[in-house]
Design goal:
The protein is α/β, with parallel strands linked by helices. The chain contains seven helices and ten strands. The longest helix is centred in the last third of the chain and has 18 residues.
């Protein structure tokens, strides 16, 4: 069995330059998440949770330290390598659904597979839409879908390539409580079926309790529990 952690951050710092001078966003974050584990990251607004997730996705580069995902060192990769790595290994679910309005639900769900030139992009995307209960809505555009349905399309898009790691940033933040609960049931169900690793940023402590482990961030530092 491969024991390489899904996520391994080592002494990660991120400093950005603002008009008033340097701003320390992350201050020496170290974190390990094992394969198949579910981790909730909680903490006050501005504590660095989303920024850390962006580093895991290769959408930000640390000022120092290393970010290893599925055994690969993201800090050593160029933009093309990072894009390819994301396509092959990661599924990302944002608070904002980030669906393309001129594409149908099926086309949105198939997008990462199309980018990867997967020969079965459409059939895998349709299968993922059926998993989230939207097979009959495959031909509908985002404007024809409710917020909960749009987030379910985003889930289908994230899971269609069968990623090893799912990164979720406040996935129910734009949904009402009942709809959010249904979406999260789907997220945990699909994570378990695929034995994917899940790292989820959330402000919802009850949601965090559903994960196997919780990590708390304060002022760019990690406090694990």
């Amino acid at each position: 069995m491969n024991s390489t952690p899904s996520v391994a951050l080592s002494d990660v710092h991120l400093t950005l330059t603002a008009g008033s001078g340097p701003v320390n966003i992350l201050n020496g974050v170290s974190l390990t998440v094992e394969q198949g584990e579910t981790l909730a990251v909680v903490g006050p607004s501005g504590s660095g949770k989303t920024t850390m997730l962006m580093l895991m996705a290769g959408l930000e580069k640390p000022s120092s330290g290393t970010v290893r995902m599925a055994g690969a060192d993201l800090t050593a990769m160029g933009e093309d390598e990072l894009a390819r790595f994301r396509r092959e290994n990661l599924g990302i679910v944002f608070q904002a659904f980030h669906l393309i309005p001129t594409m149908t639900a099926l086309e949105n769900a198939a997008l990462p597979l199309e980018f990867a030139h997967h020969p079965e992009a459409r059939s895998l995307a349709l299968e993922a839409l059926e998993q989230v209960g939207l097979g009959r809505r495959a031909g509908h555009y985002p404007s024809q879908l409710s917020g909960g349905e749009q987030q379910r399309v985003a889930l289908a898009r994230a899971f269609a390539p069968r990623p090893r790691i799912i990164l979720a940033d406040e996935p129910t933040g734009n949904l009402d409580e009942d709809t959010g609960a249904r979406v999260m049931e789907l997220l945990f169900k699909m994570q378990a079926e695929e034995t994917a690793t899940l790292v989820m940023v959330t402000h919802d402590r009850n949601l965090a309790k559903r994960c196997g482990r919780t990590a708390v961030m304060h002022s760019g530092r990690m406090e694990e529990r």
